[in-house]
């Protein structure tokens, strides 16, 4: 007789997963890996958290560097806004495709191998970016860069599940994904400074070298996890998660909110240079301030999710989406640079409420064996959006002869979609495998 195990998903929602076959039931303690949170002492948890934090900072610094370097690259390769949008968006397409595979790999084989491979791989392609000699080669390298970095996010989520008990995971996860904003601050500020002195190519070589060092440190920080047996990981898990209505809604909420976020971060430096007449160094410095505030806000969101967030996922996401819409609209009509930067910062604070919540949902409500796959599905939606957003904005800017107004309309519309879906995110009894919106 086949055993069924039901795991709570967002309070009353259940994920039905066949964990064990008949022959595995007597040996369940052998088939399933040891509860990994017991394998990490307090000092080891701090070490792995700091190492993951630096890894995420580097990942996002490498990624954000292009939003600043695209300005001199566009001049050197004579790119119009449409071509520049393709360079900015190409990374996210391959990055998105890797989410699903890497989530499965991290669930199946443990996070350590996947993490180290990803960091080493993207570091090589970061350095190669500085050697690109044409538009086509640059796009090809960005695609390969996305493949290398694509597995890092779901694998790092599995590491959190391996190292921390459920009651600590929202704070741990919020801290490391908050590095998205620290990395964005460093990526825009550091590459602007390096470019000012040594040029954009040299900056990419520096980032690539740092990445190799981080990969080595990760190898020693993260404990190896033995490969899970077939009985330890539910069969058909991917399909069950994807058929769950709340899982799909979570993915689409992140899809639309990430169109806004990546669209903004990709084009904001260009927007500031062209509409506010700021030089590239000061663009990098000015752009770093909102990211630092967002980092602090995201850690606040993580603390709230751990302490009072139980059953309030919809509230966090809906409030965040509403803030994004309001402050994006104010950005579009802001007449001064200080007001523009204030509204941009507040819009990012709203985004952190969505960002923090969607990635805590798997950690809080799913079994450890499903965390990587679920996170990969959610991030897949967000990164597909990240590939679409910069490209669409580039086309809109080109079509409107340099005006950014249509781009703001597009971003605000995406925020409205995120809000509407958030409002329908209800905790109701839905089993994986049940169809429905």
Verbal overview:
By secondary structure, the protein is mainly alpha-helical. It has 16 helices and two strands. The chain has helices at 28-31, 42-77, 81-109, 111-129, 135-150, 152-163, 166-177, 179-198, 200-221, 237-243, 245-276, 280-308, 313-333, 337-365, 368-399, 405-423, and strands at 3-9, 13-20. Strands 1-2 form a two-stranded antiparallel sheet. Helix 7 runs antiparallel to helix 14 and helix 11 runs antiparallel to helix 12 (280-308). The chain is globular. Residues 1-35 and 428-437 have low confidence and may be disordered.
Instruction: Let me know the average pLDDT.
Output: 78
Q: Return residue spans where pLDDT drops below 50 for at least 5 consecutive residues.
A: 1-35, 428-437
User: Helices and strands: which structural class?
Assistant: mainly alpha
Provide the helix percentage. over 70%
Number of extended strands: 2
By DSSP (H or I, 4+ residues per run), the number of helices equals: 16
Distance from first to last alpha carbon: 33 Å
How much strand? under 5%
Shape: globular
Brief descriptors of the model:
two-stranded antiparallel sheet; 437 residues; disordered N terminus; disordered C terminus; mainly alpha; globular
Layout of SSEs?
Blueprint: E1 3-9, E2 13-20, H1 28-31, H2 42-77, H3 81-109, H4 111-129, H5 135-150, H6 152-163, H7 166-177, H8 179-198, H9 200-221, H10 237-243, H11 245-276, H12 280-308, H13 313-333, H14 337-365, H15 368-399, H16 405-423
Antiparallel strand pairs: 1-2
Helix pairs in contact: 2-3, 2-6, 2-7, 2-8, 2-9, 2-11, 3-4, 3-5, 3-6, 3-15, 4-5, 4-6, 4-9, 6-15, 7-12, 7-14, 8-9, 8-12, 10-15, 11-12, 11-14, 11-15, 11-16, 12-14, 13-14, 13-16, 14-15, 15-16
């Amino acid at each position: 007789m086949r055993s069924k195990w039901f795991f709570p998903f967002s309070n009353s929602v259940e994920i039905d997963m066949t964990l064990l076959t008949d022959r595995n039931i007597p040996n369940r303690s052998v088939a399933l890996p040891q509860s990994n949170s017991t394998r990490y002492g307090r000092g080891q948890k701090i070490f792995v958290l700091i190492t993951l934090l630096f890894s995420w900072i580097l990942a996002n610094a490498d990624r954000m560097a292009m939003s600043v370097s695209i300005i001199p690259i566009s001049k050197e390769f004579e790119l119009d806004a449409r071509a520049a949008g393709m360079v900015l968006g190409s990374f996210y397409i391959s990055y998105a495709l890797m989410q699903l595979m890497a989530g499965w790999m991290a669930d199946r084989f443990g996070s350590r191998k996947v993490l180290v491979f990803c960091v080493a791989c993207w570091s090589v392609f970061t350095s190669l970016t500085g050697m690109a000699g044409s538009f086509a080669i640059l796009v090809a390298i960005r695609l390969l860069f996305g493949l290398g970095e694509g597995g890092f996010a779901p694998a790092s989520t599995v590491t959190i599940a391996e190292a921390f008990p459920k009651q600590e995971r929202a704070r741990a996860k919020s801290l490391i994904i908050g590095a998205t904003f620290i990395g964005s601050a460093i990526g825009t500020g550091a590459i602007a400074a390096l470019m000012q002195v040594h040029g954009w190519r040299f900056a990419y070589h520096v980032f690539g070298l740092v990445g190799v060092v981080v990969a080595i440190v990760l190898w020693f920080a993260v404990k190896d996890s033995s490969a899970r047996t077939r009985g330890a990981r539910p069969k058909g898990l991917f399909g069950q998660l994807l058929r769950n209505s709340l899982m799909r809604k979570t993915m689409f909420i992140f899809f639309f909110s990430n169109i806004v976020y990546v669209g903004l971060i990709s084009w904001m430096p260009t927007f500031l240079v062209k509409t506010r007449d700021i030089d590239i160094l000061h663009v990098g410095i000015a752009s770093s301030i909102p990211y630092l505030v967002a980092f602090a806000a995201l850690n606040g969101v993580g603390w709230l999710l751990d302490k009072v967030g139980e059953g309030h996922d919809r509230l966090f996401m809906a409030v965040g989406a509403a803030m994004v819409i309001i402050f994006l609209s104010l950005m579009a009509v802001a007449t001064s640079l200080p007001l523009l930067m204030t509204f941009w910062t507040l819009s990012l604070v709203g985004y952190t409420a969505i960002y923090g919540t969607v990635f805590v949902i798997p950690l809080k409500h799913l079994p450890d064996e499903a965390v990587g796959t679920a996170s990969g599905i959610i991030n897949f939606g967000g990164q597909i959006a990240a590939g679409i957003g910069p490209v669409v904005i580039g086309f809109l800017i080109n079509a409107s002869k340099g005006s950014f107004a249509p781009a703001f309309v597009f971003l605000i519309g995406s925020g409205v979609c995120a809000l509407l879906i958030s409002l329908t995110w209800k905790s109701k009894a839905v089993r994986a495998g049940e169809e429905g919106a």
